[in-house]
Enoyl-CoA delta isomerase 1, mitochondrial (Branchiostoma belcheri), 313 residues
Amino acid sequence: VRNSLISGNETIKMALTIAVGGRVWRKFFKTFPFRSNSALKRFPTCRANGRLYSTSSDVVLVRKDEESGIATVRMNNPPVNSLNPTLMVALRSCFEELEKDKTCRALILTSQKPKVFSAGLDILQLYQKSPDHVAQFWEKVQDMWLALYGSRLITMAAINGHCPAAGCLLGLACDYRIMAEGNFRIGLNETQLDLVAPFWLRQTMIDVIGYRQAEMALMIGALYPSDKALQLGLVDKLAPIEDVQTVAEEEVKNWLKIPDQARAITKMASRKPLLDELRRRKQEDIQTFRDETTRESVQKSIQQYLEKLKAKK
Ligand SMILES: CCCCC/C=C\C/C=C\CCC/C=C/C(=O)SCCNC(=O)CCNC(=O)[C@H](O)C(C)(C)COP(=O)(O)OP(=O)(O)OC[C@H]1O[C@@H](n2cnc3c(N)ncnc32)[C@H](O)[C@@H]1OP(=O)(O)O
């Protein structure tokens, strides 16, 4: 159904784009505009000795191999890469910078700290905060996701540890997922916090693992061990934790054999409807999140969840 939402006009545009050769990328960007962001200015790019895009806050570390055009983006927000506003803005800026870099062809997203890819949204940002704070926070989640899910690049998640909730959201936004073998978990456990995954996150889960499995996983807020995640198709490959990055690089090299423009146009053809839908319904989605999250009963659940996390020790 979603594919059929791409109009005939767009299909013609895509065909023309392929046909006109030299001007292909200009046409491509016209057809599928990628948004830029003034926040970029706050995170100056630094280029030296093959390192680049190190953000001013260093919560995101980026290294690009100039020869292959592969950029590795490491989340570096200890202890568990919880997605707070700083990390999300830095990630978005980084995705957008790489997008603009014509020599960049692929992006590997991973964690600087093995054993935890990302613990998901920073729960403290959702607890006892003003509705405005929660609304602004959610917009940062949306913008980060739009930049990654809508990327022309090959995007590969090298999931070197636990990957709950919005960690999984990041993984699902990528084209391919490689996860560490062993006792690491991945999934959308939002309902366990009395939260409801928004339509665009639910849709990506359905797109990746199919309707029945996604429906069940979302309802029960399942977190799967990596072998089960592989079986479900939630991740595409497993590797020993110390090899996740290398395996991701090898996989990217296979993908690099495919011509960029055909791959990127094909990807956008399947993702554009959902991207457009979120862009269209952005404010509605923010309001829903703000109203749901600040509800008293949800605040109580978040408080209990936080207590459970602390009590674990
Ligand atoms: C139709 C209607 C539509 C309505 C739409 C409305 C709303 C949409 C709503 C929701 C969609 C949201 C999508 C995403 C949501 C989220 O991401 S919520 C976050 C969920 N995350 C989790 O459940 C993971 C919690 N963390 C853990 O399970 C573990 O920390 C771990 C990741 C497995 C790592 O374990 P370990 O290495 O043992 O580390 P610790 O547990 O000891 O943690 C270290 C410290 O970090 C703190 N912490 C952990 N996770 C978070 C977090 N997510 N946010 C903030 N802080 C976190 C933990 O408390 C420890 O702190 P202290 O050292 O004790 O101070």
About this structure: The first helix runs from residue 8 to 19. Residues 79-80, 82, 116, 119-124, 162, 164-166, 189-190, 193, 195-198, 288-289, 292, 309-310, 312 surround L6WJOLX4 (CB under 6 Å). The first strand starts at residue 47 and ends at 48. The CA atoms of residues 149 and 173 lie 5 Å apart.
